[in-house]
Amino acid sequence: MSANVSVAPGLLSDTVDSRVVFVGGKGGVGKTSVSSALAYGRMLEGKRVLLVSTDPAHNLGHLWDAKLGDGVTRLAQADGDTTNRRQANADRGDGGLIDGVEIDPHDVVDQHFNAVYKQMLRMLPERLHGPAKKHLDSARKAPGSYEAAILERIAENVQLGLAEYDVVIFDTAPTGHTLHLLTLPDQLFTWTEQLLKSRQRSTQYTGVLGSIVTGKNVEDTSDHDAQLRRTLIRRQEKLGALRDAMESDAGFIVVTLAEPMPVAESLDLLDQLADLKMRVASVVVNRRSPVDAGPFLAHKHDLEEVQIKRLEGEVGRIPVHQLPLLQEPPQGVDGIAAIVDSMTEA
Ligand SMILES: Nc1ncnc2c1ncn2[C@@H]1O[C@H](COP(=O)(O)OP(=O)(O)OP(=O)(O)O)[C@@H](O)[C@H]1O
Ligand SMILES: [Mg+2]
Prior knowledge:
By secondary structure, the protein is α/β, with parallel strands linked by helices. The chain is built from 13 helices and 8 strands. It has helices at about 10-15, 30-45, 60-65, 85-90, 105-125, 130-140, 145-165, 175-180, 185-215, 220-250, 260-275, 295-315, 330-345; strands at about 20-25, 50-55, 75, 95-100, 165-170, 250-255, 280-290, 320-325. Strand 7, helix 12 (about 295-315) and strand 8 (about 320-325) form a beta-alpha-beta unit.
């Protein structure tokens, strides 16, 4: 389906074998810009790209001048109007496009609990509705429910990406949060498994509870139970698919700046990724100062050089790429295309 055109060597080719790419790093270093540029480069190669933001702050839509939501929105198409500027390049590709998603964890949590609440209303006798709602409200605020909801949407988007796109690129939230999420599929997988096993027991419990409250036998939970079981099994499959994808198809790109603190934090991140056995495709040093734009920036360039040497000395065989500081902050499709141009020139 896709023409095999290499738009930019280096950064783009590092992830050419990864069908799932996570772009991570400290706040404000350029994750959204780099993941968008990567998506754009892939589109110009004729690839169908799903670009997903997991960051609650959501600047993906702002960068693309588009309103994004939890469902899929078309951001660009190689043969469409949005990419005139790069039409010559795009013509070399075939059918490339980018669809964008902004996962909204609050919405996801709300939807999830509302669905559970409705299910409970149907299952429980009326006098238990009040206590059930109270219980759900506190569960909604419990630590972990927010993360579990994002993770489930990440898993769903990985499934969607693998089924209908050539590649799915995640623009992730700043470091710690993302890493925490990546450790979750295993834990949740086990947890769901236990939940499935304990369903038998809890069905009996619901029956007994119902009969105590109503004084009657509550026998009609079997349908609801089968439904809940199906939901849990579907969730299990999703988490399993995410776990498999992370082990075989995924690559991580660490974005950083050539400054002491961001470099130190990126080295920590690389250690943690190694512990998680995530494959790191490359490190991108963004906003590199030019040498030929006055003494101030030339001096900054020299200081950055020291940090880049330090980084290169520590990362072993992981490629380190540099992206220049652009005169204007990238905005819209043209701004994103400018980053891809700077990759090609690098
Ligand atoms: N190469 C570049 N040259 C000039 N400005 C850049 C470059 N890359 C990114 N920027 C600007 O730097 C700022 C941060 O970039 P971006 O939003 O991509 O970072 P981020 O890591 O996604 O941030 P956050 O952690 O807040 O999500 C933005 O204002 C962006 O326009
Ligand atoms: Mg961002």
